[in-house]
Amino acid sequence: MNDPKTGDILIHWEETMKKLLKLTSAVALGAVLGTAAVAQELYAPNLAYRTGPFAATGIPLMNGQADYLNMLNARDGGIGGIKINSEECETGYSTEKGVECYEKTKAKAIVTQPWSTGITLQVLPKTNVDEIPILAPGYGFSPMADGKVFQWAFNTPSGYWDAASMILQYLQGQGDLNGKKIAFLHLDHPYGKEPLPLLEKKAGEMGFELVPIPVGLKEMQNQSAQWLQIRRERPDYVVMWGWGAMNAGAITEAVKTKFPMENFIGVWWSGHDADVKIVGEAGKGYKSISWSFPNPDAPVMADIKKHVVDAGLSQSNEEEMSGVFYSRGIIISAILAEGIAAAQAEFGTAEINASQLRWGLENINMTEERIAELGLDGMVPPFSTSCSNHTGHSGGWMLEWDGSKFVKASDHLMPDTSDYAELIATKAGEYADANAPWPTNDACEG
Amino acid sequence: MFYRTAGQFKTSYKADQALFPVRQDAILLMVILAFAWVVFPLTASEFTFQTLLIPVLIYALAAMGLNILTGFAGQLSLGTAAFMGVGAYACYKLITIFPWMNPIVAIMLSGIFSAGIGVAFGIPSLRIKGFYLAIATLAAQFFLVWLFEKWAWLYNYNASGAIQVPNIEMAGVWISGPQASSITQYYVVLAVVTIMTILCINLTRGTLGRTWKATRDMDIAAELIGINLMKSKLTAFAISSYIVGVSGALFVFMWRGAAEPNLFDIQLSFRVLFIAIIGGLGSIMGNYLGAILIVGLPVVLNIVPSALGIPISSATVEHLNIMIVGALIIFFLIIEPHGLNQLWRLIREKLTIWPFPH
């Protein structure tokens, strides 16, 4: 025992053990505190996708969402004095994982954010039975706008039919569409097919020729065949419903085939800065309709910088934070926060439950003043929801790539919802019939 | 000691050829069945049903179908997912065309459609072998998924292009669709899988199974001793595709609730193939072991960090998960290339002679 070496080793060992003990007790304490804190927080999980083939688009969105809620937690101590736990459950955009995450989180969750059309389709019927609101901002099933049928589903502030309507309106503003030809380049997937019923209807009414060009999931990165077809068809405009690798593939192919970029318009999920950045100057004129806009001067950005970024809580970076998708993440969380706040005010309790949040999401009133109050100046158009209108139809702006970033290229556009109000009602009715018994909200009027 | 077979004398041919000639095997099976039929359903949570119990059974059934073809008859197939898709779409069409049809009957019938398609794509196997056959089945994979996308009649001209499982009632209980409870669906799946397993065990022990094995081991020799290769290969394709088709119908109707064409993409084929290979080609039990590993492991790995209270982001867990599962697959294949089934066989052998090894 007097051997100095053995003694050293023993002391060293003792220290290591002490450290280990400390660590385990800290972990145990953390677990205890974690469970203790459950009672005083609102659990709003996010089925995030930071891995897998769509991670490049998922990461900025998730960062924006997380940063906004973390900012509220740090600045105001949450919403209505209660912290928001915006834990992420990783899906990798896989439907199977998504459903697993839904099952895992549904016991405590007040909302579910499925983040992919595939997961939305699977979770949608389940939320109606489990009675959890499903928040799918700007994606999912367009007929979800019908709040009477889809009581638990929200695709605020704009749906795909809104997007198609606004794009056509914008194009009409550029010159009469009668006799023109529009190629509709879309992902061959439920998501890409969403706007087809409306586009087909409008093609007849407005007198333009619609050429749907599907891009299979396996062809996303190699669209030479599709662009050959576009060259042969010589359309006046190309409208794109693309996602993930398809966007960058289409944009590079458009540049390669020298398609005039100013006649190339994407939906909001095709307006990711990184996708256009790879072609840089050559992508100048490319457009994307959007219901969100990055405004680096908005007060909310300063608050996020102060409370989240400087505190080291953000996973984002400067370049990403100036992009369209990061700011869209912020808007999505802001919509959720507004729903929570509305529910808290109505029910007089900070600890709202899922069905109270449903009421809140149905009664969002994002006026110009409220947007300014939240510090979201110019980042989202005003909108309001009601029990029959779960989308809000906020309208949006046409964004244009100026060679290095997206800028607003139009005034606030409003979709012509009367065009497809009937379509929404029929499709929603069909869905309810196919899934009978499907409880609807008959108490809702208007 | 635990698995001593000494003293278990067989006094009749019948006893000698019993399914489980060793008493301990029969007891073990009884215990497993008791767990599957009584203990799990009574104790499992909604989450366990949806992420472990139901998918393990369905994947095991799909792998069993593939194993008949690849493990027993030696015909490599990469089109499993597409045949599952045929089963699922057939079931959907049956249910929507004949709404009065009993859903379990529909599920069982849907396998017939996939068996037909399987035989059609199995015809090339009479001329080509090995990798070339794998490529022919790959053609089935791509062609069928393409068909699911393009043939709008299959999904009743749905705008979304996806099929949605309706709520179906049977004897006053919801058995499919969002209204159905997990426990009902679990029992339906378990019943179907149990019946199919008994069928498979008996088939592979009988004439047909022996014919398949002869074809697998050396087709020329098999032909010389009078085995009709065409019959042997095509029955393997038919029965395999039937089982795979039923598993596809269960996959969508009893578990997923909705399906898009790309659900039946090649990834799913590979997943089922991995289960069959890791479980052990040419075995029935291996399919279950493989399915438990491939389906269960990621779920368990996902729960572990949060259960221990380790603050780790969900994305990191996912990355770790992929690495660990990948490493484990390689590890198992190196230490036991014949699959988990062989591993169990070795353990059993060691237990039989324990504590006095040779």
Give a short overview:
Chain A: Pfam families: Peripla_BP_6 (PF13458). Chain A: Residues 47-403 form the Leucine-binding protein domain. The complex is a heterodimer of chains A (446) and B (358). With 446 residues, chain A is of the alpha/beta class.
Considering the chains and any ligands shown, give keywords for the structure.
heterodimer; A: 446 residues; alpha/beta; Rossmann fold; 2 domains; seven-stranded mixed sheet; 16 helices; B: mainly alpha; ABC transporter involved in vitamin B12 uptake, BtuC; two-stranded antiparallel ribbon; 14 helices; cell membrane (chain B); branched-chain amino acid transmembrane transporter activity (chain B); LivM-like (chain B); transmembrane helix (chain B); Amino acid/amide ABC transporter membrane protein 2, HAAT family (TC 3.A.1.4.-) (chain B)
Polypeptide structure, described:
In chain A, β12 and β13 form a beta hairpin. Chain A has two domains: 42-158 and 296-395, Rossmann fold (3-Layer(aba) Sandwich), CATH 3.40.50.2300; 161-290 and 397-418, Response regulator (Rossmann fold, 3-Layer(aba) Sandwich). Chain A has 16 helices and 13 strands. With 446 residues, chain A is of the alpha/beta class. Chain A has a seven-stranded mixed β-sheet with strand order 6-5-7-8-9-12-13, sandwiched between helices. In chain A, strands 1-2 form a two-stranded parallel ribbon. Chain B has one domain: ABC transporter involved in vitamin B12 uptake, BtuC, CATH 1.10.3470. Chain B is mainly α. Chain B has a two-stranded antiparallel sheet. A two-stranded antiparallel ribbon of chain B has the order 2-3. In chain B, α4 packs parallel to α6 and α7 (182-205) runs antiparallel to α10. The chains are: A alpha/beta (446), B mainly alpha (358). The interface between A and B is large, with 44 and 36 residues. Chain B: One of its GO terms (molecular function) is branched-chain amino acid transmembrane transporter activity.
